[in-house]
Amino acid sequence: MATEPQGSQWKTLDKDLNRISQVELAATYVARPLVGPGIALAFIVVAGAVAAVFFGHQPSSFVVIAAAAFGAYMAVNIGANDVANNMGPAVGANALTMGGAIVIAALCESAGALLAGGDVVSTISKGIIDPASVADTRIFIWAMMAALISSALWVNLATWVGAPVSTTHSVVGGVMGAGIAAAGFGVVNWSSMSMIAASWVISPVLGGAVAAMFLAFIKARIIYQDDKIAAARTWVPVLVGVMAGVFAAYLALKGLKKIVSIDMPMALIIGLVVGLVTYVISAPLIRQKSEGMENRNRSVKTLFGLPLVLSAALLSFAHGANDVANAVGPLAAIVHATEFGGFDDKVSIPTWVMIIGAFGISFGLFLFGPKLIRMVGSQITKLNPMRAYCVALSAAITVIVASWLGLPVSSTHIAVGGVFGVGFYREWHMERRLRRIGAKTGEVKRIAKEERRRRKLVRRSHFMTIVAAWVITVPAAALLSGIVFWALNSFVN
């Protein structure tokens, strides 16, 4: 019998071990994308367990447990999609790292939801459907469940595609679709829906116009001045004061409704006082920080870094105070209807429901948020601290103006519209400067189509994807909701 050469056994063993290590490496590589969904699934299960603790004694507790799980799923999707609008500009401008942005956003969103989130939420989503048409408690519960499931699925799909969409519009579409499936088209308040449709145009256009206006002001008063540092010492404290005043009014009006109710005139007075105080404090600080700076645009940009970080944090706080309540509204309605055997147009949100919403947003942000943050911050157009400052300021100003005029607007559409507005303004401004330079030198010539395309500062593919997602959000969520309601009503009962 032939014997193997000495040492060949060890070589064979080394080969086998190498194969095993390669298999382990491949398994780790394949499993890495599943870590995020696995953690999210664990959170959803925990949310269902929390509901079981509170409602395990109820005969229909399985409905609340299922609703809590879907509510947690919805909250995770909000964190993955909606929060990017607040942090994206700051990250794109390199004022914040991705890790820093995620931590600040998670803390501020959770604080906004738990400290200043609404005590009461409209279960019929601002009068979209007539409550009398779904008077049967069972039908009402399935309608709210369908709205919750469909809106969560739609936001999840939009995140996967890379399109920031409005969570509130998704919920509205879900409620409308379930209402139509339950009681027909006559149940929908079409005047309210027409106002929401109008906000698809109003929100981004208003946000883009305000952001472009502030960027034009900064360029004219600071960037194109001979002594940029001296101009910055004059105007940056003014801009910081405006930002502080606007955000104070914004938070007083929209973010502190649980703590105290403030009307528009009082909010504006608060904003004015805070703005003046901030100007007085920031003027000497800006002067001190600008000492020894070179007369360059890069030097001026650093002065906007800290205000931009603070504005992103405040936007996240206000978003947590407002949008989380809208997102968990259907869940709160289901809990109320199950507990009391009926429903009201407005119900209180239990603390444990708000906690699910707050923690779900944090988990979604940590696990899936970077994709949309990069999209908003750097892939639509290039941002620096000044441009990102204009986007953040436009978001707060537009919400205040819209509230004053009684116009329904989406914070998501405003923020992304501000990014588009800054990018399109830069395109227009660059073309204008080139023509002026050409006119002075006598070298005016037609720019080739390829060269014009190369000079575009806003990515048209992202622009079309996002706008298309905005337009179809309500009808897509409504269609999904109608299908889910039909399935629940047909197969569960």
From TrEMBL:
* Topology class, membrane: Multi-pass membrane protein
Q: Which residues cross the membrane?
A: 34-55, 62-80, 139-159, 197-218, 230-253, 259-281, 302-321, 349-368, 388-405, 411-428, 463-488
Q: Which InterPro entries match?
A: Phos_transporter (IPR001204)
Where would one find the signal peptide in this protein?
Answer: none
Which UniProt keyword terms apply here?
Answer: Membrane, Phosphate transport, Transmembrane, Transmembrane helix, Transport
Q: Where in the cell is it found?
A: Membrane
Primary subcellular site in the record, as a coarse category: membrane
Query: What family does this chain come from, according to its entry?
Result: Belongs to the inorganic phosphate transporter (PiT) (TC 2.A.20) family.
The identity of this protein, by name, is Phosphate transporter
Q: Which organism is it from?
A: Sulfitobacter dubius
